[in-house]
Design a protein that fits this description.
Layout: H1 2-23, H2 36-63, H3 67-70, H4 85-92, H5 104-134, H6 140-151, H7 159-169, H8 175-200, H9 203-211, H10 216-224, H11 229-244, H12 248-253, H13 261-269, H14 278-310
Helix pairs in contact: 2-14, 4-14, 5-8, 5-11, 5-13, 6-8, 8-11, 8-14, 11-14, 13-14
Amino acid sequence: MDNMFASNNTLTAYEKETRRIEAGPSGRKPRRRLSRRNIIVYGTLIVVALYYLLPLYVMIVTSLKGMPEIRVGNIFAPPLEITFEPWVKAWAEACTGLNCDGLSRGFWNSVRITVPSVIISIAVASVNGYALANWRFKGAELFFTILVVGAFIPYQVMIYPIVIVLREMGVYGTLTGLVIVHTIFGMPILTLLFRNYFAGLPEELFKAARVDGAGFWTIYFKIMLPMSLPIFVVAMILQVTGIWNDFLFGVVFTRPEYYPMTVQLNNIVNSVQGVKEYNVNMAATILTGAVPLVVYFVSGRLFVRGIAAGAVKG
């Protein structure tokens, strides 16, 4: 009797499953890929992307043309005869004032400015953010408020006082002085990013480490740092792009022999002597912007993760 009852139940379940399969899929109908909404969205994105890529295209094709072809006037036409002579001249021969050694000297000056500025500012700001997020010392809120306010003070307001300070320190007009300036001005926003990121990490990890007897630096190096790669990438990209693209500090706080790449680019583009070589100017512009572009494209995914994790939490 029991076996017959079980058989009927099994048969009933089988029949239900058969009917469900014959009836076909249920639920909401899948959205068509070429719906009106998708066409509008992707069409808008394509138009915007082309709008922003068009100047880059003009720069590239112009830098690969000779001057006779440029004088024809069709800036959108691809080069009839590709030449890399403008790139060579922009790198090693273009005049940037009294010197005619191209952008090569400015490139190495920018490297010598950017590398120590990025390393020092990120190292100090990460420790600041870690301390403000996890170690409640006396005056922490006041210190954090001062840093945040400092992030919104216009740079131009403090140029003259900084000139006096650097002169009294004996580093005005040197790469060391410019490294100090970039390190200090990058500190407020980086501290804010690191503080928000560390505040978003599970507090139980910090408490467990404290219970186990771990101190300030042990927790920082063995727990916080391994979990903080995205925000370090964000800080690196922000500092590299900001310092590498800087013009104001470079022209104010250094001498001609220490000018960064952006200042030399300005001297090349705005030169009033001889023929205006647009192909050389375009090649020099691309060379100057290549480093931040490479850094961003290599680490762009981690940049988005870090911004989402650390920039919107308080």
